[in-house]
Amino acid sequence: MKDIVINVENVSKTFKTVKAVDGLSFTVEKASCFALLGPNGAGKTTMMKMIYGRALRDRGQSKIQVFGYDPAESELDIKYLSGVVPQENNLDDELNVIENLLVYARFYDIGAAEARVRIAGLLEFLELAEKVKSRIRELSGGMKRRLIIARALLNNPKLLILDEPTTGLDPQVRHLIWDKLRQLKKSGITILLTTHYMEEAFEISDSIIIMHKGRMVLEGPPRKLLQEHMERYVLEVLSGEEGERLKKLADEKNIRVDGSHEVTLFYSHNFESLESLAHGLGVWQYHLRQSNLEDLFLRTTGRALSGVE
Ligand SMILES: Nc1ncnc2c1ncn2[C@@H]1O[C@H](COP(=O)(O)OP(=O)(O)OP(=O)(O)O)[C@@H](O)[C@H]1O
Ligand SMILES: [Mg+2]
After folding, report:
1. What percentage of the chain exceeds 90 in pLDDT?
2. What CATH number did the domain enclosing 184 receive?
3. 42 Cβ closer than 6 Å to some ligand 1 atom
4. What secondary structure does DSSP assign to 54-118, as a single string?
5. Is residue 303 part of a domain?
6. 11, 12, 46: which to mutate for ligand 1, most atoms within 8 A of CB?
7. What is the pLDDT of residue 303?
8. Which residue minimizes the CA distance to atom 31 of ligand 1?
9. Which of 23, 45, 181, 224 has its Cβ near the most Cβ atoms within 10 Å?
10. Closest-lying ligand to the alpha carbon of 301?
């Protein structure tokens, strides 16, 4: 049997009139990476907070188990087994880099000598060794994010929870963080993550959930979801007169069209049929490519909501 680290069954969370999470169920396997995806306000952060005990789920027929513990009752047990990177940076601006980490080590009862060894290793791992004495305000956004990841790893967690670890970071830092997360996964750490970067979810997740308004829309391995729910290829055409002509042609050929935006999108499993649709367009007028997770995301969470379940 597979080793399950997180088990969520029929969990909801209501804030006054808002149902932030609405009947979610999923499981996360040991040493896998699981991503929660969804537009702003979908309920990702709320779901995560219920997993590490920072928010209580609605009462009722529901279950959350993290390493077998219910976070509503055993927040501390889960805290000792997990590291959390919250959505907002919450470093202490009054302290420098190493002081921020030492304070945290004390929360976890890690002895000073041991803490210094771990901190040196983690700053090295996240390529921050040169910044050990820097003030927090002297760090760039990417450095702060990496420091918070280092902090989350200080207690040698078995579960790493990251709420938008790479939002606003440049591509180099994002790729560096992906590499580090892959290494951590290989070492046996389970990762739960939210992100707005579909490429990130695709690159590092074994399984994803796409949420919308607190509910699950799709769940599964990203490649499998793409295969099952999207045509393989997309032709993007800058709208205009050409767009209208092509839409008619596509209709005749049974090619799915999304014409709700400035760029008209044509979807098909057949590359040649899209190629022939693009025939005669100038190279700068179209882009023919493989479909990706972002296409699926927009389709399921509302680029063109009509016709989508
Ligand atoms: N403490 C709170 N009190 C009241 N409403 C809240 C609270 N926290 C979240 N909400 C509401 O719950 C819904 C889900 O919010 P949540 O922060 O979980 O979304 P999210 O998917 O993390 O969004 P984002 O991508 O913007 O971070 C939103 O409608 C939000 O306004
Ligand atoms: Mg959030």
Report:
1. 85
2. 3.40.50.300
3. yes
4. SSPPPSSS-EEEETTB-TTT-HHHHHHHEEEE-SS----TTSBHHHHHHHHHHHTT--HHHHHHH
5. no
6. 46
7. 57
8. 41
9. 181
10. 1
Residue 168, in any domain of the structure: yes
DSSP string, 171-227: HHHHHHHHHHHHHHHHTT-EEEEE-S-HHHHHHH-SEEEEEETTEEEEEE-HHHHHH
Q: Residue-wise over 180-211: b if at least 16 C-beta within 10 A, else e? A: bbeebbeeebbbbbbbbbbebbbbbbbbbbbb
Confidence category of residue 284, pLDDT binned at 50, 70, 90: confident
Q: Which domain holds residue 116?
A: 4-222
Label residue 214 by pLDDT band (50, 70, 90): very high
**Which atom of ligand 1 is closest in space to residue 13's alpha carbon?**
12
- pLDDT tens, residue by residue, 3-16: 999 999 999 999 99
Which residue, chain included where needed, has tokens 């000073």? 112
Last residue of a domain, one of 222, 244, 259: 222
pLDDT tens digit string along 17-65? 999 999 999 999 999 999 999 999 999 999 999 999 999 999 999 999 9
- Measure 255 CA to ligand 2 centroid, in angstroms: 36
- Among the bound ligands, the one closest to the CA of 15: 1
Q: Is residue 302 part of a domain?
A: no
